[in-house]
Specification:
Layout (H helix, E strand, L loop, with lengths): L1 E4 L15 E4 H6 L1 H13 L5 E4 L10 H11 L3 E3 L7 H14 L7 E4 L6 H13 L3 E7 L2 H7 L7 H14 L7 E4 L20 E6 L1 H7 L25 H17 L4
Parallel strand pairs: 1-8, 2-3, 3-4, 4-5, 5-6, 6-7, 7-8
Helix pairs in contact: 4-5, 5-6, 6-7, 8-9
Length: 262
């Protein structure tokens, strides 16, 4: 499994600690330095994999038109279709609309994130995305899944809920496309998926600011401290000290080593 490292706007260089690059559309639109950073990645490292997120998890006001504009400029490898938290019907309608408009960008794949007000609706949404030949990768959200499977919000039981969802998908033979794990609740979560040897090849990647956020809070994974700190708005404007950057590097190294082989 590959990992994307998301950092603060003041320490964009920490994105290089990841295996891939995760571009947040709302920051791309409003922060010139952030935009230029990702444009430089595309120019200097043409083989780098860039995923363009749609900003729905942050409840941003990124429109379909905004996303299409960024796709044209950045030429990401994939883009997350506009989804609506907990709303299966609107998410699927948005996907249909987005697929049509993306036909003029054949080199950018479409990544879709299932939503639903409960488990049944979420599974129905996931299944529709699985059947959709235009969808290359499916995202398992740290927000959508705990809500759909357990009625939880506010970053509760992310790992446990997602493991339950993967169990369900596996038992019902629904793991047939690459999966991306959106966000993180515990860096040890992914070790659980090693047992799914038949479909392990589909556990593609995960993104999170968790390793960096924890470092800012003085939390060391090496010391077996996995306290969950919800992402707070001022985190992204923080400039890391050298001590915090060193701890972030160690947290990322722990994350990759602990989940090696997934």
């Amino acid at each position: 499994m590959d990992f994307y490292v998301i950092s603060t706007l003041k320490n964009l260089e920490l994105h290089h600690l990841g295996d891939r690059y995760f571009c947040l559309a709302h920051f791309y639109l409003r922060d010139k330095e952030y935009k230029n950073f990702f444009l430089s990645i595309r120019k200097l490292f043409p083989s780098a994999w860039i995923t363009l997120d749609n900003g729905s998890a942050e409840c941003s006001l990124v429109t379909e038109g905004d996303l299409l504009q960024i796709v044209e400029e950045l030429q990401p490898n994939e883009v997350v279709s506009p989804d609506v938290l907990f709303d299966k019907e609107q998410t699927l309608n948005n996907l249909d609309s987005f697929v049509e408009k993306m036909k003029k960008f054949p080199n950018t794949e479409i990544f879709a994130c299932p939503q639903g007000e409960n488990k049944e609706a979420w599974v129905e949404c996931y299944t529709e995305m699985l059947k959709n030949s235009n969808v290359s990768t499916i995202g398992l959200s740290k927000i959508a899944i705990p809500f759909a499977f357990k009625g939880l919000s506010n970053d509760k039981d992310i790992a446990e809920s997602r493991q339950e969802a993967v169990d369900y998908l596996f038992n019902n033979k629904l793991i047939q496309k690459p999966l991306h794990f959106l966000g993180m609740g515990d860096p040890r979560e992914y070790n659980y998926y090693k047992k799914f040897s038949e479909v392990r090849k589909y556990f593609r990647s995960s993104d999170s600011c968790y390793a960096v956020l924890s470092a800012v809070q003085g939390i060391s994974f090496l010391e077996e401290n996995f306290k969950r700190v919800p992402t707070y708005e001022s985190f992204y404007s923080h400039r890391l000290s050298e001590r915090e950057k060193d701890l972030a590097l160690k947290n990322v190294a722990f994350l990759k080593q602990y989940n090696k082989g997934v």
